[in-house]
Amino acid sequence: MSDDLVTTFAALGDPTRFAIVERLLREGALSAGELGSVADISAPAISRHLKVLRKAGIVTQTVDKQRRIYAVAPDAVQAISRWTEGHEAFWAGSLDRLDAALGRED
Question: What is the C-alpha separation between 23 and 92, in angstroms, rounded?
C-alpha cells in the first residue's frame, strides 16, 4: 500500500474526520462553520481536524473573502476506490464465506 493511502486511512480513522468527509461527500463544499455541527466539539477542534484532512490530501480548501470552503479531493476518493476494487476478490470471498456460515446457523 502506498504511503499516501496509509496517510489517508489514518486520517479517516478518526470518527470526527470520517464524519466531516461523509458530510462533504453528501452535501458538497461547505464552510468550516457549516461543518461544526458534525460533532459536539469547538470550532478550533474542527479546524484542527480539517488541517489533518488537508495535509492528508483528502480535502481541499479555498478562500472566499472571510470564509474557508472545504471540499473532498476527488483524487483521494479515486485512490480509495482503486484500492478497494483491487481487493474485490477478497471481499467477494469473505462475503461468500459469511453467507455460507449464516446458512449453517438456520
Answer: 28
Question: Which pLDDT band, with edges at 50, 70 and 90, does 105 fall under?
Answer: low
Domains and CATH numbers, the chain: 3-105 (1.10.10.10)
pLDDT tens for residues 81-92?
Answer: 888 887 777 777
- pTM of whole model > 0.90? no
**Residue of 78, 82, 24, 74 whose CA lies nearest to 49:** 24
DSSP type of residue 58: S
Would you list the DSSP string of 1-42? Answer: --HHHHHHHHHHTSHHHHHHHHHHHHH-SEEHHHHGGGSSS-
What is the arrangement of strands in the sheet containing 30-31, beginning at the earlier edge strand?
A: 30-31, 67-72, 59-64
**Which distant-in-sequence residues (6+ apart) come within 8 Å of 47 by Cβ?**
32
